[in-house]
Specification:
Strand content: 25-35%
Oligomer: single chain
Low-confidence stretches: none
Structural class: alpha/beta
Largest sheet: 5 strands, parallel
Mean pLDDT: 92
Number of helices: 10
Strand order of the largest sheet: 3-2-1-7-18
Radius of gyration: 23 Å
Helix content: 10-25%
Number of strands: 25
Length: 420
C-alpha cells in the first residue's frame, strides 16, 4: 500500500507516525512546503527568542529514518488527480498514491484593505518563514502594528514584547470590544489587556483598518495605517504590519477535482473521509479553527481508517482553547459568546483569590461551556462533565465545587464508571 500525506504539522506528522505503527510494510511519503518540522502553537516563543528552531521542533531528529518515511520537503502540491491517483508538485514531479491524507493546513487571510497585498513590510503569522521575516524587520522598526487580537494576534504581540531586540512602539487593533473575542468574555479579556498596557502596547478596540498608506519613497513599503476608532479617523505610523485577521485553507490544488470543499475549508466526516474514495482530510484545512490536540486526533483517526482500522473522531470539543500569556493560564471550553444568547442557558461566574476567574454555562443540568483563568486545576473535572454529557442537576453543591467523587463511582462489578 502506498500512502501519501500532504502537510507536516500536527495532523500530518502524527498521521504518518500512526500509519507506520499500523502498517510496517507500507510505502509512506510525506510532502510539505516547509523544510523544517515545528509547532505552530509556540511560534510566539520563537519570535520572542525564548526558543530556537530545535526548541519548537516536536519530533525526534531521526523521526523520518526511524519511521521509514520519505519526506519531500520544500515542495508545494500544485494539483491532484483523483482518477489517476497522482499528485503534481511545483517542480513538475508526479507522485502516485493508493490513499492520500490532505493535511495541508491554512495560511493567513488578508482582508480586503487597500494596499494590504504585495508589500514587503506587511506579513501574516502562520509559518516559520513568517516568523523570520517578522524578527528581521522588527529589529529596525520604530512602530509595529498587529491587526487582529485573536489567538494568532496575541501570539504576535506577546512574542514581540518578549524579544529583547524589539524597541518599537507596539499597537494592537481589534474590530471587537475585547481581546480574544471568540474565546473570552470581557472579564477574562481585561486581565490580558492590563498586561499589554503595562508593556506599553496601545490598544484599539471596536476599530477597523480602512487603508494602508504607501511609503512615498518606496511603493513596496507602507508607512502608516488609516483606521476608524470609535468613529474617529486615526492614522498610525507603521514600519511593520502583522496581519492576524484569520486564515484561509490551503485547498487551491483541489480546484479541478471533485473533492468537496467550501470557502471555509475541506469537508470530511468523523472518520476523516472526504466525498472521494481513498482521499482523507485532517487538521486546520477544515477551517474550523482546529486546535493542536484536535488536529493530532484527526490525523490519527483519519490514518487509522486509511489503514483499515475503524476509528471515529468523537472525543474532542468543537471549541477548546488553552493559552498562557504572561504566565496567566486560561482555558476556554465551548463558545460562551453564543451560549450567553441561548434561551434557558444559565451563566454562573465567580471571581476568586489571586485573580482566579471562573465562568460556566449550563442548561437543564448539562454544562455546555466554561472559561477558567488563573488556576486550571478545575478544568479536568469540567472537561469530563462536558465530554460525557453528565447531568449535574442532582448535585446540591456549588457548580464551582463539583469534583470527581460527585459523578465517579464503582459499579456492581467493582469497576469505575461515571454517573449519568
Amino acid at each position: 500500500m502506498k500512502y501519501v500525506i500532504i502537510g507536516a504539522s500536527a495532523a500530518g506528522i502524527n498521521g504518518a507516525e500512526n500509519l507506520r505503527a499500523l502498517d510496517k510494510n507500507a510505502d509512506i511519503t510525506l510532502i510539505s512546503k516547509d523544510t523544517d518540522i515545528y509547532s505552530r502553537c509556540i511560534l510566539h516563543h520563537y519570535i520572542g527568542g525564548m526558543r530556537d528552531l530545535e526548541g519548537i521542533n516536536f519530533v525526534d531528529k531521526d523521526f523520518f529514518e526511524k519511521n521509514n518515511i520519505n519526506w519531500l520537503k520544500g515542495r508545494e502540491v500544485i494539483s491532484l488527480n483523483e482518477n489517476e491517483k497522482t499528485i503534481t508538485l511545483d517542480n513538475n514531479e508526479v507522485v502516485s498514491y493508493d490513499k492520500v491524507l490532505i493535511a495541508s493546513g491554512s495560511r493567513p487571510f488578508f482582508p480586503p484593505i487597500e494596499n494590504i497585498n504585495g508589500k514587503e513590510n506587511v506579513v501574516g503569522l502562520k509559518s516559520l518563514d513568517d516568523c523570520n521575516k517578522i524578527i528581521e524587520i522588527s529589529k529596525k522598526a520604530k512602530n509595529i502594528v498587529v491587526i487582529g487580537a485573536g489567538l494568532i494576534g496575541m501570539d504576535a504581540i506577546s512574542g514581540l514584547i518578549h524579544n529583547k531586540n524589539v524597541h518599537a512602539n507596539l499597537s494592537l487593533i481589534e474590530m471587537s470590544d475585547r481581546l480574544l473575542p471568540l474565546q473570552l468574555d470581557k472579564e477574562a479579556s481585561i486581565t490580558y489587556e492590563k498586561k499589554l498596557v503595562e508593556h506599553g502596547v496601545k490598544l484599539f478596540f471596536d476599530s477597523k483598518v480602512t487603508k494602508l498608506n504607501v511609503n512615498p519613497k518606496n511603493p513596496n513599503l507602507i508607512n502608516s495605517l488609516s483606521l476608524l476608532d470609535d468613529g474617529r479617523d486615526v492614522e498610525l505610523l507603521a514600519d511593520l504590519v502583522i496581519v492576524c485577521a484569520g486564515v484561509k485553507p490551503n485547498v487551491e490544488f483541489l480546484e479541478n477535482t471533485s473533492i468537496e470543499y467550501n470557502k471555509i475549508g475541506l469537508l470530511f466526516n468523523e472518520k476523516g473521509e472526504t466525498n472521494v474514495k481513498d482521499v482523507y482530510g485532517a487538521g486546520d484545512i477544515s477551517g474550523n479553527g482546529t486546535i493542536w490536540s484536535v488536529a493530532v486526533k484527526e490525523g490519527i483517526a483519519a490514518t487509522s481508517n486509511m489503514a483499515g482500522k475503524t476509528r471515529v473522531m468523537d472525543d474532542f470539543f468543537f471549541a477548546k482553547s488553552t493559552m498562557n500569556f504572561f504566565d496567566i493560564p486560561t482555558l476556554s471550553l465551548g463558545c460562551l459568546h453564543i451560549y450567553e444568547k441561548t434561551e434557558g442557558m444559565i451563566i454562573d461566574s465567580l471571581r476568586e483569590r489571586d485573580g482566579v476567574y471562573k465562568k460556566i454555562a449550563h442548561k437543564n443540568g448539562k454544562i455546555h461551556g466554561a472559561i477558567i483563568q488563573g488556576d486550571l486545576s478545575y478544568t479536568g473535572v469540567l472537561t469530563q462533565l462536558i465530554r460525557l454529557n453528565i447531568d449535574i442537576s442532582k448535585i446540591k453543591k456549588s457548580i464551582f465545587k463539583i469534583d470527581y467523587s460527585d459523578f465517579f463511582n464503582i459499579n456492581s462489578e467493582l469497576e469505575f464508571e461515571y454517573k449519568k
